[in-house]
Design brief:
10 strands; 32% helix; binds iron/sulfur cluster; binds pyridoxal-5'-phosphate; alpha/beta; 337 residues
């Protein structure tokens, strides 16, 4: 319907015109206000934030829309559950210096912004104290020194927050800095922005990535094929056309994508755009996300079905992140050798 408007509008104005009021979101989707009170309560700890281009992919009048469920604050978030905590991955301890989160050998996360274009209700970083933790340009010498002190590092992962909420100019500055360190070979960008504001993939961004000395990997985050309309896929394909590796990570979420069929459709849709499925994460046990949780036998059933129906190259690796481990932990079939 109104999708074409977002195809015309530049990403900066879309990013400064997000829906942040639950009433407006419900109104836009012609949904009743019965969900409103719970939504207001849940926004107190984590605000609603969603781009209109993402809302345009939701089904009008459907309170169970899988895209809506990912972003609409819900009163169930307020329920206390002892297993669900504010920092399930103990990231505060892995924080070496502003912006640097180094847990695995060859690669580390560089967090340049705490901002995201969308607030995903299940996000494990919803309680993370970003503000104290963001590097500025003048912190670069320290970051450089840190990288050079760790000869195993060959890859930097721009993460967040969401690094593609930064301007192209800022992004280019950081990428320039990183390119100047010979030991770095790969630059990865983890971002949900190409999914929620596809126009973020603009000509300047493409040329920055295309012209970098570093091998670029873009890891997008889409949980459902309905997020991948033709326009979004065409933008992802533009990256692929420049020989940028584009991968997808998804999170397995109750009510959103907890069926083999949904996951199979997602893999095929990604592949249409030239994007390869990478990870399927089980939910991190973060406070406020307990209503997205699935029990392990259900997860196993779904994943077995996915394995049986897709070619191996379209099966995302089912993983959990466990604090203190050397890598994401594979969850299926690892005991059978
Ligand atoms: C997930 C993560 C990575 C990336 O892991 P890959 O398995 O290489 O995708 C790197 N560093 C940290 C701190 C992470 O949480
Ligand atoms: S875009 Fe990523 S980091 Fe931001 S809220 Fe969503 S899942 Fe979390």
């Amino acid at each position: 319907m109104i999708n074409y408007l977002y195809q015309e509008q530049n990403w900066q104005s879309q990013l400064s015109d997000l829906i942040t009021d639950p009433a407006e979101l419900l109104n836009t989707l012609q949904l009743s206000n019965t969900l409103l009170q719970g939504a207001h309560l849940a926004t107190a700890s984590f605000k609603l934030r969603v781009p209109r281009a993402f809302v345009a992919k939701m089904q009008i009048g459907n309170p169970h829309d899988p895209l809506l469920l990912q972003v609409l604050p819900h009163h169930l978030e307020l329920e206390e559950h002892p297993e669900f905590v504010t920092d399930p991955l103990a990231e505060e301890q892995a924080n070496q210096q502003p912006g640097v989160l180094h847990k695995y050998k060859s690669r580390f996360l560089l967090t340049l912004t705490g901002a995201c274009a969308v607030h995903c209700r299940y996000c494990f970083r919803r309680h993370f104290p970003y503000q104290e933790n963001l590097p500025k340009q003048q912190d670069w010498p320290n970051i450089k020194q840190y990288i050079e002190s760790q000869p195993d590092i060959n890859e930097v992962i721009l993460s967040g927050g969401d690094p593609l909420t930064l301007s192209n100019r800022k992004l280019a500055e950081w990428i320039d800095h990183l390119s100047s360190i010979p030991q770095l070979k790969f630059l990865r960008i983890h971002s949900r922005v190409p999914i929620v504001i596809p126009n973020r993939v603009d000509e300047v961004l493409i040329s920055i990535l295309k012209n970098s000395r570093l091998r670029i990997i873009v890891v997008v985050h889409s949980n459902h094929a309905a997020e991948l309309d033709d326009f979004t896929c065409s933008k992802l394909s533009q990256l692929v056309d420049q020989k940028i590796i584009v991968l997808n990570q998804a999170v397995l979420l109750k009510g959103v994508n907890d069926s083999a069929k949904t996951l199979i459709d997602l893999s095929y849709r990604l592949f249409d755009a030239g994007v390869m499925p990478y990870y399927l994460h089980v939910l991190d046990k973060v406070k406020g996300a307990q209503h997205f949780d699935l029990d392990s036998s259900h997860i196993e059933h779904i994943y077995e079905d996915v394995l049986a129906n897709l070619p191996g190259y379209l099966v995302p690796k089912l993983v959990r992140e466990i604090a203190g481990e050397n890598n994401k932990t594979p969850l299926f079939g690892t005991t059978n050798y």
